[in-house]
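Notebook B, p. 112. Complex prediction, attempt 2.
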Amino acid sequence: MDENKIARDGAVIFSEYTRGEVIKKVVELNRDDILFELKESKLKGRGGAGFPTSTKWMLTAAAKADNKYVICNADEGEPGTFKDRVLLLEYPELVFDGMVIGGYTVGAKYGIVYLRGEYEYMLKSLQDYLEAMRNENLLGKNICGKEGFDFDIEIRLGSGAYVCGEETALIESLEGARGEARNRPPYPVNTGFMGRPTSVNNVETFASVVHIVTKGGQWFKQHGTDKSTGSKLFSVSGDCANPGVYELPWGTTINELLDKVGAVNTKAVQVGGASGVCLSKDQFERQLAYEDAGTGGSIMIFNESRDMVHVLKNFMEFFVEESCGQCTPCRIGNVKLLEGVEMIEKGEYTFRYINQLKELGATMQVASKCGLGQSSPNSFISILENFKEEIFNNGNGGTNGK
Amino acid sequence: MLVVEKNSLTAEIEAMVEKYGNSRSSLLPILQDVQRNHKFVSEFAQQEVARLLDIHPVEVYSVISFYSFLHSKPMGRNIVRLCQTITCDMMGKVNVAKAIERELGISFGETTKDNKFTLEYANCLGMCDQGPAMLVNDKIYPRLTPEKAVEILNEIG
């Protein structure tokens, strides 16, 4: 596998770091200091949902139990996302050291990386890396000589289920069950893996934590916007000269990003993967940030030659396949939305029915049990809204230009 | 299935249970190992896993039926998974798929008569910047062209 030759330059995540550096620092600190720095940094979860990391860790740390767990969610399945692949292959020190900090902070002795089955080719190199850490006493018993600080990491593989990226489905999967999301509350911070308090964080969140603890929350906050602090890895793919992973501060506009990656004649940008929203030209001045266009990092670019109905059909086929089938809005709703897209494709639709489907989408957003069904209508609604001129009013009798 | 084959499969699963432990949370790693070694999890294997983990066999089947990388029916010796998600699609997935189908003489979802290849589509493989991409067993092949994809399959023994 050859990586794209994009220089990995970035102010935060790709800044310089050596394995073990932060662990040696952490053992001198107490939990509260670390939680304080995290709170100061205002770091939000990098998987896409944006829950404050300090709150999650504080709740897990506060929970009383004989055993606690730290889980790294490396089930990167969102279409158009591949930043975790780059982090795990090129920067494993950030991910694993971040997990060790997590273990120290919340009081867990055991960490698990849930690696998606599609990434099995990384397994060997990651396990070798963990072994090297054990040899340097960065994992194992009494880490870095700190009495009673025991922590070890195990890697577990997924088996090709997108929904397992949802934290409670991931925990179900680790417990040997079907990857079906749980009702919440209780949240994993209280009742997680094996019923014990568990903090589930994204790969990139751990990587960010390492830099925050090394250089301080204040330093981290200097990057990004007021509400979205720090920088973010963006997985850029589609119609551009230089696809790949870019580290950019939050608050970067879509136009700035398009310039940087060499995209021309861009018609549409899908922000946040298949479960995100599709923006048209008039929205390219919007900022990539939790408070504006939030994302777990997936940016897919479509130029003028692309057929948006084809794009939408691909997304809906994805959700029909990946819905776990547990709750009705998601199981049946996605099938109905896909049928609607096929009607549009054939030119056999009524506006009345399409509007009903948009309402169905809105229902799914509130009535589905987990994030999958809550977000799968996003692309349906946004593409039909933002590209209605092309799709419905193109002077071809509404047959999508065919 | 011959008795000796059954016995050897039982011994194999016993060794896996020994390695991962006999708790329910070991189920997925055990099934993944059986799948890797045999390309599917037979009914007999399901029963043995259930017996050794002390759960009902249908619990094992339920888990297998959920995950797209676990199979209860025999598959080819090599499982080819071509990414069908939008960016690979835009970068020429269709022509790669057609070339593979022509060359192997089967469609997606089928297994070759000599049992060498099973063709499947997969959802996003995380290679969107280097598409089209496919997995052959656990190996990833990015930046495919129709010709390159066929060459890769031809090189597999």
